[in-house]
Design brief:
Shape: elongated
Mean pLDDT: 81
CATH class of the largest domain: Alpha Beta
CATH architecture of the largest domain: 2-Layer Sandwich
CATH topology of the largest domain: Beta-Lactamase
Low-confidence stretches: 184-193
Number of domains: 5
CATH superfamily of the largest domain: GAF domain
Number of strands: 22
Strand order of the largest sheet: 2-1-5-4-3
Structural class: alpha+beta
Distance between the termini: 120 Å
Largest sheet: 5 strands, antiparallel
Radius of gyration: 54 Å
């Protein structure tokens, strides 16, 4: 077909379609080509009439030539997809034969093909990373892992030159640890390559991607690599900006637009190397720790086969660590489980239930504590010799038994003493009171019946006898109360201390209505204890304050609680010398004479005993003539 042979209406249609179209005559000369075909194939204007392989020599020997000849030979349409080196594009081609020649329609499907190929490359890259990770986990050395990474980069990225660098944080310098692809006598020494791209990745943590180092303004120092044929590169950081470990750089001998997947593959590989390096370092540190501890240590997999033992565990069995690794745990537990599988069952239980267990076992005349901790898919065990501890525990148990026996004896003795004290109290209460009542009663009767015949001195003597008898009765009552406080049952319940103090102050006012004492009680004072005993404490302390303000012009008493949580009773009365403060709470202790201030000297001793029974403390502060303050806690 010739250009002029096409009908005008058909030519108009072919010029408007989005596909490229050209026609070949029976002698394989180009007879027609639409504008889209000229554009895609970069065709000359004078191409009509030219033999098609002369016009497009890069198609010779390719699928284009083979399929066109097959279509003409079989006189059947053909359809295929092929890469055009002429257009540097992928074309989907449909060719329709006739006896007069061949009509060819083609369209640009580069985006679709590249997307398909990128999916394939992504799958390949992902599988390569998985295989790489498995190889690392399988126990490969760090050096072998780096060599495997270089091989992957060469295969997946088609890299011509690959360098793996180590980074020294102290000096901030990179050093090549592995290199592949540099030719002998290269202008650039691989031991000291340009560092511009390495500085970038360690400073930013981002990959350095250069498609053409001749025009990239960031790659000025890399242009020296042109002499080695290098035109593009990808550099990624191994580690992080905060903890850089090194870098990977792939160099390519042609300009290249790297896909996102390409760059991410190098980044993922760098991350895998960083994680493997960290794992190696962690294992090294962990091994140092496990070798330094006093316990014997063993790690087991899910089948209870030994994966690691420290030197103490190996010494325990008289073997080397290498000889024990890989052997089953049962080979060792059987030695001290002569009658059952107790120890082995504990390991199985810890592994099955995924929980920590501790048990003790006796072996070779020694006691051992075995602590089990599940981890990952296995279990770890720590073995400690606790013979000394067990011996000490047995000794403590024996001492406790002896102590309990002694406590029982002391308790029985105390019960006997309490019964004797109760008998004594009963005797004091009944046997001593009767003579005192007789002395007081007969003295009163003598005064009433024969007083007129006595002079004043004799009457005074009888009055003193009566007062002494009454005072002794008061002392007996006070002693009985002190003894009763020591034995009184305790029942801790909430106590309104403010209300209790108010009631005591009201009773004092009624008993001595001539005195005008100003009593200030802080509201909301609450305590916990035995109400009757606490009432005795408040009555004694307030009674003392009332008594010792007798000679004060404007007597005042305060009841409250300070910021340290101590309750207090304060007055502005007679006070006391602080050098005698330690004697205040002893029985019969008095800092004033009975003629000046009445009392038995038992009250504060009773208060102290009640406070101590409540687990509290009591203390006093004062100064002569400036009042006193009694602080207590419950």
């Amino acid at each position: 077909m010739a250009d002029a042979a096409l009908r005008p209406d058909l030519s108009l249609v072919l010029e408007r379609i989005t596909d490229g179209f050209f026609a070949l005559d029976a002698q394989w000369r180009i007879s027609y080509m639409n504008a889209q075909a000229r554009k895609l194939l970069h065709a000359r204007q004078d191409i009509i009439g030219e033999f098609w392989l002369d016009a497009f020599p890069k198609a010779r020997g390719r699928l284009f030539e083979r399929e066109y000849h097959r279509a003409m030979r079989d006189q059947r349409p053909v359809q295929f997809v092929e890469y055009s080196e002429t257009a540097e594009l992928w074309f989907e081609v449909k060719a329709y034969p006739s006896p007069d020649g061949l009509s060819v329609y083609f369209r640009d499907v580069t985006s679709r093909i590249e997307a398909q190929r990128e999916v394939e490359r992504t799958t390949r890259r992902q599988q390569a990373l998985i295989d790489f990770g498995r190889a690392a986990l399988a126990g490969a050395t760090y050096d072998q892992t780096l060599l495997d990474a270089i091989e992957l980069l060469r295969e997946i990225l088609d890299a011509n030159v690959i360098d793996l660098y180590q980074y020294d944080r102290s000096s901030g310098a990179f050093a090549v640890v592995h290199s592949m692809g540099w030719e002998s006598g290269a202008v650039v020494d691989p031991a000291a390559p340009p560092l511009e791209h390495l500085d970038y990745v360690v400073r930013t943590g981002e990959p350095f991607v250069c498609s053409d180092l001749r025009i990239d303004p960031r790659a000025r120092s890399l242009r020296a690599l042109e002499h080695c044929g290098v035109l593009s590169c990808v550099a990624t950081l191994i580690g992080t900006v905060h903890a850089p470990q090194g870098a990977i750089v792939t160099y390519h001998l042609r300009t290249r637009t790297f896909s996102v997947g390409d760059v991410r593959f190098v980044q993922s590989l760098s991350q895998s190397i960083a994680e493997f390096s960290s794992a190696v370092e962690s294992n090294r540190l962990m091994s140092e720790v496990l070798e330094s501890i006093n316990d014997a240590f063993v790690a087991l997999d899910g089948d209870l086969h030994i994966t690691y033992v420290n030197h103490r565990m190996a010494e325990f069995w008289g073997l080397s660590a290498a000889a024990m690794v890989g052997t089953p745990l049962s080979a060792y537990t059987a030695r001290f489980d002569s009658e059952d599988s107790r120890a082995l069952n504990f390991f199985k239980e810890a592994l099955r239930d995924r929980r920590a267990l501790t048990f003790e076992h006796f072996y070779r005349g020694r006691w051992h504590e075995i602590r089990l901790y599940p981890f990952g898919g296995g279990v770890a065990g720590y073995v400690r010799d606790i013979t000394a501890r067990r011996t000490e525990q047995e000794r403590v148990l024996e001492l406790n038994a002896e102590l309990e026996r002694r406590v029982d004896e002391r308790t029985k003795q105390l019960e006997i003493a309490n019964k004797e004290l109760e008998s004594f109290s009963y005797s004091v209460s009944h046997d001593l009171r009767a003579p005192l009542r007789a002395i007081d009663g007969f003295s009163q009767a003598f005064l009433e019946d024969y007083g007129d015949g006595l002079d004043r001195r004799a009457q005074g003597y009888l009055d003193r006898v009566r007062r002494a008898a009454q005072r002794m009765a008061d002392l007996i009552d006070a002693l009985l109360q002190l003894a009763k406080v020591a034995r009184a049952p305790m029942a801790h319940v909430p106590v309104d201390l403010s209300a209790l103090a108010a009631a005591v102050a009201a009773d004092l006012g009624e008993s001595d209505p001539r005195r005008m004492v100003e009593v200030t009680i802080q509201p909301g004072l609450e305590a916990s204890g035995e109400p009757h005993l606490i009432q005795i404490v408040v009555a004694n302390l307030l009674g003392n304050a009332w008594k010792f303000t007798r000679h004060t012009e404007h007597p005042q008493v305060w009841v409250g609680k300070n910021s340290e949580g101590e309750f207090y009773v304060r007055d502005n009365g007679a006070g006391f010398d602080m050098s005698y403060a330690s004697k205040l709470f002893g029985a019969f202790a008095r800092l004033h004479s009975a003629d000046e201030y009445e009392g038995t000297g038992i009250g504060l001793a009773t208060v102290a005993r009640i406070i101590h029974r409540h687990g509290g403390n009591i203390r006093a502060e004062g100064a002569v003539g400036q009042g006193a303050t009694f602080y207590f806690t419950l």
